[in-house]
């Protein structure tokens, strides 16, 4: 922060009362990144495949379970399907922290709304709130979402981009594996599919992402949202990537690691003699 | 031309008296002739044999070009080279080495020794010091004394004979396991050294483990065992995701 200065003239006074954002830290960070060998922290991004389809009276979402940090797999079985309300779920791709916090915030907002109005939240409400929030942050909150739910007006499926634009679609995919998944959905989607056929289709689409996109991998999670039951997450609906080989290593014998120093400190002194008094 | 000053032609040259003259940033042209095609390879020397293992995934960015592309080339009857980095440079380098070795054989009426090939690879790489082959090589074989030999290189020809080594996208993950299982670093209790089958098993296990955590390693693995009997190759499956 800059030091507090005495206002020089009315322009300074106006400036000091003007409010708004201060960008001095942005300038500082850009300077440090360019001049000094300091790198700004990088967020964990999940290269991802997520998709969703809308059928006659059901919405099905699906996601892979790999979370990456550059070329490394950070989590082999993470959850990318998020609860928002009993009848609304969302699949997320992008920055892991942003996704978790955005969806949790939306979950609490929807619960408060439900208690205030005594009605089930509607999908369009969630979409509007999310898109307004994401637009406000101008794309810096890295959430690419496939949002689905069933409310009083029926089943709905939406796609929301990090900058806040939304689409209402019968089927959609997002993330780095979205092209692979979309190839399957475009070829095989049909609105008259049964729930079982729908589950198989989204799983196949995610599998396309898992095998053909290096940012996606491991297992398939599926979420089925119906009018009667609400949403049900089928965790690890398919596990097509079990490890194929593991050698039998001999365990390290106890004492393999050298002990350099041993020191035991008594933190509590225990009195053994207890004197009983009448 | 579009209101911008052109330098070079006399009529457009800015005059000192022109108060509106501004310095223009020079136009920069970027040229990036290198690509990283990922993959991992490793080599372990035994007393009278050597084991080389590598995966067969060829990728770029987030996509897989092919799931079955070998990183290993046989150079002589008892020497192979495994190269990670950029595939096109590796192909060119291997082709060049093979041609040089044919010439060697014609001149000397015998195949080049692993030590000779190791030196030749170093000079070949340094020959392109200022436009290097973007390859990270592991050269393995059985030397003239019948001992297992592993050589590790950087992209411009610095090399060293080592008991075991690894290179490529998952090399940092591999090295830690080899340090513990082969060199037995920081271990005070002596445990028997791994035999031939044990090392082959270890290589298979290490590649499987790296395939779990490195996105550029996977699809399938190949193991080359070089000993007095010659070169034998085995293949095994890795995860496809």
Summarize the structure in short.
The complex is a heterodimer of chains A (278) and B (241). Chain A is an alpha+beta fold and 278 residues long.
List the uncertain runs of chain B: 1-9
Main structural class of chain B: alpha+beta
The name of the CATH architecture of the domain at 50-238 in chain A is 4-Layer Sandwich
Q: Work out the helix count of chain B.
A: 4
Rg of chain A from C-alpha positions? 26 Å
Helix content of chain B: 25-40%
Largest sheet of chain B: 5 strands, antiparallel
Which pair of chains has the greatest number of interface residues, and how are they split between the two chains? A-B, 32 and 29 residues
* Strand-pairing-aware structural class of chain A: alpha+beta
Radius of gyration of chain B: 24 Å
pLDDT averaged residue by residue of chain B: 92
Secondary-structure map:
The complex is a heterodimer of chains A (278) and B (241).
Chain A: H1 10-17, H2 24-35, E1 45-46, E2 50-54, E3 58-64, E4 67-69, E5 72-75, E6 81-85, E7 88-95, H3 96-117, H4 123-136, E8 143-151, E9 154-160, E10 166-168, E11 171-174, H5 178-188, H6 195-212, E12 220-226, E13 230-238
Antiparallel strand pairs in A: 1-7, 2-3, 2-11, 3-12, 4-5, 6-7, 7-8, 8-9, 9-10, 12-13
Chain B: E1 40-45, E2 50-55, E3 58-60, E4 63-66, E5 72-76, E6 79-85, H1 87-108, H2 114-127, E7 135-142, E8 148-153, E9 159-162, E10 164-168, H3 171-183, H4 196-213, E11 220-227, E12 230-237
Antiparallel strand pairs in B: 1-2, 1-10, 2-11, 3-4, 5-6, 6-7, 7-8, 8-9, 11-12
Overview of the structural elements:
The complex is a heterodimer of chains A (278) and B (241). Chain A has 278 residues and is an alpha+beta fold. Chain A has a domain at 50-238: Glutamine Phosphoribosylpyrophosphate, subunit 1, domain 1 (4-Layer Sandwich), CATH 3.60.20. Helices cover 31% and strands 26% of the residues of chain A. In chain A, strands 1, 6, 7, 8, 9 and 10 form a 6-stranded antiparallel beta sheet that branches. In chain A, a hairpin with a 3-residue loop joins strand 2 and strand 3 (58-64). Chain A is extended, with a radius of gyration of 26 Å. The termini of chain A are far apart. By secondary structure, chain B is α+β, with helices and mostly antiparallel strands. Helix content of chain B is 28%, strand content 29%. In chain B, helix 3 (171-183) runs antiparallel to helix 4 (196-213). A 5-stranded antiparallel beta sheet of chain B has the order 10-1-2-11-12, covered by helices on one side. In chain B, strands 5-6-7-8-9 form a 5-stranded antiparallel beta sheet, with helices on one face. Chain B is globular, with a radius of gyration of 24 Å. Chain B has a single domain (40-237), classed as Aminohydrolase, N-terminal nucleophile (Ntn) domain (Glutamine Phosphoribosylpyrophosphate, subunit 1, domain 1, 4-Layer Sandwich), CATH 3.60.20. Chain A: Keywords: Cytoplasm, Hydrolase, Nucleus, Protease, Proteasome, Threonine protease. Chain A: GO terms for molecular function: threonine-type endopeptidase activity. Chain A: It catalyses: Cleavage of peptide bonds with very broad specificity. Chain A: It comes from Cladocopium goreaui. Chain A: It is found in: Nucleus.
């Amino acid at each position: 922060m800059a030091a507090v200065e005495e206002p020089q003239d009315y322009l300074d006074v106006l400036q000091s009362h003007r409010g708004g954002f201060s960008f001095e830290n942005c300038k500082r960070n850009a300077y440090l990144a360019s001049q000094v060998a300091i790198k700004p922290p990088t967020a964990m991004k999940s290269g991802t495949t997520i998709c969703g389809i809308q059928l006659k009276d059901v919405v099905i979402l699906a996601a892979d379970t790999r979370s990456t940090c550059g070329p490394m797999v950070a989590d082999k079985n993470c959850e990318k399907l998020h609860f928002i309300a009993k009848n609304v779920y969302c699949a997320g791709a992008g920055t892991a922290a942003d996704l978790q916090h955005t969806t949790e915030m939306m979950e609490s907002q929807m619960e408060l709304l439900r208690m205030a109005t005594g009605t089930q939240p509607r999908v369009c409400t969630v979409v509007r709130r999310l898109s307004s929030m994401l637009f406000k942050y101008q794309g810096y909150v890295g959430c690419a979402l496939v949002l689905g739910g069933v409310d009083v007006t029926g089943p709905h499926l939406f796609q929301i981009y990090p900058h806040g634009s939304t689409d209402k679609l019968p089927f959609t995919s997002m993330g780095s594996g979205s092209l692979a998944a979309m190839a399957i959905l475009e070829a095989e989607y049909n609105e008259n599919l049964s729930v079982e056929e729908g589950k198989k289709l989204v799983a196949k689409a995610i599998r396309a992402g898992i095998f053909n996109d290096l940012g996606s991998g491991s297992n398939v999670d599926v979420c089925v949202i119906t009018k009667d039951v609400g949403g049900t997450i089928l965790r690890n609906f398919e596990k097509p990537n079990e490890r194929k080989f593991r050698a039998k290593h001999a365990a390290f014998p106890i004492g393999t690691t050298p002990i350099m120093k041993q020191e035991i400190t008594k933190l509590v002194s225990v009195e053994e003699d207890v004197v009983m008094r009448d | 031309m579009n209101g911008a000053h052109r330098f070079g032609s006399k009529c457009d040259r800015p005059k000192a008296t022109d108060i509106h003259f501004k310095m223009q940033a020079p136009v920069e042209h970027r040229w990036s002739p290198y690509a990283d095609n990922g993959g991992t390879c490793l080599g372990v020397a035994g007393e009278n044999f050597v084991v080389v293992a590598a995966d067969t995934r060829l990728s770029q960015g987030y996509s897989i070009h092919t799931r079955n592309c070998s990183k290993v080339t046989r150079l002589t009857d008892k020497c192979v080279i495994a190269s990670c980095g950029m595939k096109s440079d590796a192909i060119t380098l291997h082709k060049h080495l093979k041609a040089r070795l044919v010439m060697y054989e014609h001149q000397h009426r015998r195949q080049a020794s692993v030590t000779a090939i190791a030196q030749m690879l170093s000079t070949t790489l340094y020959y392109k010091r200022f436009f290097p082959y973007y390859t990270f090589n592991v050269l393995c074989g059985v030397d003239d004394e019948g001992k297992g030999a592993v050589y590790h290189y950087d992209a411009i020809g610095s090399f060293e004979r080592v008991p075991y080594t690894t290179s490529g996208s998952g090399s940092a993950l591999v090295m830690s396991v080899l340090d513990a299982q082969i060199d037995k670093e920081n271990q005070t209790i002596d445990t028997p050294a791994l035999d031939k089958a044990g090392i082959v098993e270890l290589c298979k296990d290490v590649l499987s483990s790296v395939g779990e955590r490195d996105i550029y390693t996977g699809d399938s693995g190949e193991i080359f065992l070089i000993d007095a009997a010659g070169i034998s190759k085995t293949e095994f499956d890795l995860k496809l995701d």
